[in-house]
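Researcher: We plan to redesign the surface later, but first we want a full-length starting point. Tokens attached.
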């Protein structure tokens, strides 16, 4: 059985210091959690999708209700979770990117569990610009290596 593959976009800005935009996962499971409860805006590939960047851009729109920034994007890599799930992360400069108009997408879930009742929850319940050190603590474990990859990418760009 193929492992789940997702793609996402990690925005960064350099002023006032290096910060990244991360999203707190919505729904009742994540509601009272902070460490390990944040994510890069991302999601699974849709059938017929041409590539990871197409999936990442679509998922950004679906989760946040706004269009991602215009290119250029750089691929930071594909990172594996302990579950076997894999996420390809792209990076873009989010300096000046407006979060105006954010409207979080929703999903349905049986809640409470085994109740037979279905409730709707936001896919993401908040966004935050945060330092890379804080992001390492807050992101789900499988996405933390993307922060190291971003810092390496920016260092290489500065040397070029």
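Model: Full-length starting sequence:
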């Amino acid at each position: 059985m193929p492992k789940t593959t997702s793609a996402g976009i990690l925005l960064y800005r350099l002023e006032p210091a290096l910060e990244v935009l991360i999203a707190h996962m919505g729904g009742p499971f994540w509601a009272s959690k902070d460490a390990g409860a944040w994510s890069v805006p991302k999601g699974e590939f849709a059938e017929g999708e041409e590539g990871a960047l197409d999936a990442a851009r679509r998922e950004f729109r679906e989760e946040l209700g706004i269009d991602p920034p215009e290119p250029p994007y750089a691929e930071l890599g594909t990172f594996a979770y302990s579950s076997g799930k894999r996420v390809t992360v792209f990076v873009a400069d989010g300096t000046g990117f407006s979060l105006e108009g954010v409207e979080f997408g929703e999903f349905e879930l049986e809640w409470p569990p085994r109740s037979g009742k279905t409730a709707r929850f936001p896919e993401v319940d908040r966004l935050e610009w945060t330092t890379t050190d804080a992001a390492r603590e807050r992101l789900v474990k499988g996405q933390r290596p993307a922060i190291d990859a971003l810092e390496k990418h920016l260092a290489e760009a500065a040397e070029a």
